[in-house]
C-alpha cells in the first residue's frame, strides 16, 4: 500500500489522480491533500477518501470543514501546503497545483525523501536547477506526470543517456492550431478554452493555445532528462496519439502511444516501475484512426515557443521571468483585461526588461517571480 500526499486535489490532474486511487484501493491510500478555494469539491473528496490531513488556501474554509469532519486535521495557506507535502506517512507527493506556488513545498518534500510525481511544470521551469540538485543530493526520484515527459521517460526505460540523439516533443497545436496570426487578433476566452484533444484546467488550456505550454515543456524536459536545448525538438502532431519520442544515435526512434488520457501517465508515475490495469481507459485503435499527421513547428506563428527556448538557453533567472510573466498575462487574459496576442507581447517585454541573475537562490527566484508579476500587472 502506497500512501499519497496530493497537492491540488480539486484540479483537473488532482481529480484524475483520485480516479486512479479509487480504482486501486488495495494499492493506494490518500493520506494528505490540499485544495485551493473550491470548498464544495474539497468536501466531497474528504468525504469519499477520508484523508488524515487537509490543507486549504484560506483559514476560513479550513474552519468550516473542520467543524464538519472532526476526526480530520485541517490546516491552511503556504504552511499548510508544506505540511501536506512532507506528511510523514506519505511515500509519494503528487504535485498537481497550478503555477509556481508549489515550488517551496516540493523542495521540502524532496528533503524529506518523498518520491515526487510532478505534474506541476511551473516548479521545474522556475527553479529546475534547485529541484534537480536537491533530488540528486537526496537520492529522490522525480517521476513525470506530464504526458510528453512520461512518454519520454517510458521510451528511455533500459536505455543509456549517452545513446540519446535527441528528444522529440509532440504538440497538438491547441485551440488555434489552424488559424493565422491575423485570425488570432480577436479570439475570445471561450474559443481559447476549447481544446480539440485534451480536457484540462483553464491556465494550461490557454498555454496550449499560445504554445507556451510546449515552451514550458521544453524547459521541463531539459531539467528532467538533463538534455541540452539543442537536442530537444518540437513536432506538430494534431491527433495527440504519439505522446513524444526519443531518437537514438543509431537513428532508432522509440515512441509511446495511447489515446489522450492523463490518467495513463498519472497512474504510471504512481506504479513505476510496475504497471496496473486501467479498466476505464479507451484502448488505442490505430486501424480506426487510420492516419497520423506531423508538421514542422513554426516559431513565428507560435512566438511563445521561441521565447521559451531563448529563456531556457539564457538560463539563470530567465525561465522564472518567462513563467511568472506568462502566469500573470494568462490570468489577465482569462479576466478579460487583455487580448490573446497581448499575452505574448507582455511576456516579451518582461523578458527584455529583466537583468539576468545567474544561478539564482530560492529567495532570488521568489523575488524575481514577484517583481515580474508586478511588472506585467503595471502594463495592464
Ligand atoms: P487546475 O486549475 O485544474 O487545478 C489546479 C489546482 O491547484 C486546484 O486544486 C486548485 O485549487 C489548486 N490551486 C490553484 N491555485 C492555488 C494556490 N494559490 N494555492 C494552493 N492551491 C492552488 O490545473 P490543472 O490540474 O490543469 O494543472 C495542474 C498542473 O498540472 C499545472 O502545472 C499544469 O501545467 C500541469 N499539467 C496539467 C495537465 C492537465 O491535463 N490538466 C497536463 C499536464 C500538466 P482550487 O481549484 O480548489 O482553487
Ligand atoms: Mg503536456
Task: Describe the model.
With 380 residues, this protein is an alpha/beta fold. The chain has a domain at 2-140: NAD(P)-binding Rossmann-like Domain (Rossmann fold). The protein has helices at 12-23, 39-49, 59-68, 77-85, 103-111, 121-138, 147-155, 189-192, 202-210, 212-224, 263-271, 286-289, 303-314, 318-334, 340-353, 362-379; strands at residues 2-7, 28-34, 53-56, 73-76, 92-95, 115-118, 142-144, 164-171, 232-236, 242-248, 253-257, 295-296. The strands form two sheets. A seven-stranded parallel beta sheet has the order 4-3-2-1-5-6-7, with helices on both faces. A five-stranded mixed beta sheet has the order 11-10-8-9-12, covered by helices on one side. Strand 1 (2-7), helix 1 (12-23) and strand 2 form a beta-alpha-beta unit. The protein starts with a strand and ends with a helix. Bound molecules: NADPH dihydro-nicotinamide-adenine-dinucleotide phosphate and magnesium ion. Magnesium ion (MG) binds at residues 146-148, 217. Residues 142-225 form the 1-deoxy-D-xylulose 5-phosphate reductoisomerase C-terminal domain. Its EC number is 1.1.1.267.
Amino acid at each position: 500500500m502506497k500512501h499519497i500526499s496530493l497537492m491540488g486535489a480539486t484540479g483537473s490532474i488532482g481529480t484524475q489522480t483520485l480516479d486512479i486511487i479509487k480504482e486501486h484501493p488495495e494499492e493506494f491510500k490518500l493520506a494528505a491533500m490540499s485544495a485551493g478555494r473550491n470548498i464544495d469539491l474539497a468536501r466531497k473528496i474528504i468525504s469519499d477518501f477520508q484523508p488524515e490531513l487537509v490543507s486549504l488556501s484560506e483559514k476560513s474554509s479550513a474552519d468550516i470543514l473542520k467543524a464538519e469532519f472532526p476526526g480530520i486535521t485541517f490546516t491552511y495557506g503556504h504552511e499548510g501546503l508544506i505540511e501536506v507535502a512532507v506528511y510523514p506517512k506519505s511515500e509519494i507527493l503528487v504535485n498537481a497545483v497550478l503555477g509556481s506556488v508549489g515550488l517551496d513545498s516540493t523542495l521540502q518534500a524532496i528533503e524529506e525523501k518523498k518520491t515526487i510525481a510532478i505534474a506541476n511544470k511551473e516548479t521545474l521551469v522556475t527553479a529546475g536547477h534547485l529541484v534537480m540538485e536537491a533530488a540528486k543530493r537526496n537520492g529522490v526520484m522525480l517521476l513525470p506526470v506530464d504526458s510528453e515527459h512520461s512518454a519520454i521517460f517510458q521510451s528511455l526505460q533500459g536505455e543509456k543517456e549517452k545513446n540519446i540523439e535527441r528528444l522529440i516533443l509532440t504538440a497538438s497545436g491547441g485551440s488555434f492550431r489552424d488559424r493565422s496570426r491575423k485570425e488570432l487578433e480577436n479570439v475570445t476566452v471561450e474559443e481559447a478554452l476549447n481544446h480539440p484533444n485534451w480536457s484540462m484546467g483553464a491556465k494550461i488550456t490557454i498555454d496550449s493555445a499560445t504554445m507556451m505550454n510546449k515552451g514550458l515543456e521544453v524547459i521541463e524536459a531539459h531539467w528532467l532528462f538533463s538534455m541540452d536545448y539543442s537536442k530537444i525538438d518540437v513536432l506538430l502532431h494534431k491527433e495527440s496519439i504519439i505522446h513524444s519520442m526519443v531518437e537514438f544515435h543509431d537513428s532508432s526512434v522509440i515512441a509511446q502511444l495511447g489515446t489522450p488520457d492523463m490518467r495513463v501517465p498519472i497512474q504510471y508515475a504512481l506504479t513505476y516501475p510496475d504497471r496496473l490495469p486501467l479498466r476505464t481507459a479507451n484502448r488505442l485503435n490505430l486501424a480506426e484512426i487510420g492516419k497520423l499527421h506531423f508538421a514542422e513547428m513554426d516559431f513565428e506563428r507560435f512566438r511563445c515557443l521561441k521565447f521559451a527556448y531563448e529563456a531556457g538557453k539564457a538560463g539563470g533567472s530567465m525561465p522564472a521571468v518567462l513563467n511568472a510573466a506568462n502566469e500573470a498575462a494568462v490570468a489577465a487574459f482569462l479576466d478579460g483585461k487583455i487580448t490573446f496576442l497581448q499575452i505574448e507581447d507582455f511576456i516579451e517585454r518582461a523578458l527584455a526588461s529583466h537583468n539576468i541573475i545567474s544561478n539564482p537562490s530560492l529567495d532570488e527566484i521568489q523575488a524575481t517571480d514577484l517583481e515580474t508579476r508586478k511588472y506585467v500587472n503595471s502594463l495592464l
